[in-house]
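Narrative summary of target 7.
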Amino acid sequence: MSENDELGSAVNTSDNSLVATTSCEYTKDLNSESDSYKDCLSHASSDATMSVDVIKEVVSDEVKSVGNINSEDSFKKEYKMAELEKKIKNEVLKTEDIEKKLKEAEAREEALLKRITENQKTITKMTGVLEAYEKTIAELIAEKQQIIESYEKKCADLQNERDLNFTHLTSLEGTFTDLHAKYERSKQITTSLKKSEESLIAEKKQCFENLRLQEQRYEKMKSHAMQQLELANSKLDVLSKTHAQETAKLKALLKKEEISRLSTNEQKI
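Modeled conformation, tokenized:
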């Protein structure tokens, strides 16, 4: 490939890169409306055209420099060619970066358009839902009107029934007055009986308490008597044994005395 072809390719790539750069500058906010985004792209295109003209002039100067290099010595020619290739590589890298940013901008534009389409679909769907709601509300209003009419009829019937019940209530008031008087008397009697019952219950509790105390006292006395009886029995046993021993001793002495007396009588004879 010749040097002029390389420069031409670099110029074309630079054109596309500058268009991408200027497009990115005008499309930072892709959440705006689609019309604003299109205006941004048109401004970017006009600015890119101006930048491309500048690049072309620079490249033209470089081409002229290359032409002049042919008349210089080979060392300077190679040096300038290396510098030119370095600049071209830098431009290519910048161009690739700009193309990448342009693709990202296009992707964001496509996503924005997709969101706008989805929003339009959502709006259409919500419009249908809103129409359904309006229809439902109209039906509810009609149903409410029917309910109101039904309630009004029921209220009229209830008013008639209320008047009839009022008449019956007036006739029952006299009977209720007598019944209330009887109820008050019965209430007084019940209160009196209740008091008597409470008094009797208290007396009953007191009697049971006294009986319980008497039983406890009886048990204590019984226990004490049993202890005393056992003690007396033991003492009586001791006395009986002592008396028996003394009786035996006395009988023995008496027997001995009788034997002694008989012996004395025999000696006298």
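The CA atoms of residues 198 and 204 lie 10 Å apart.
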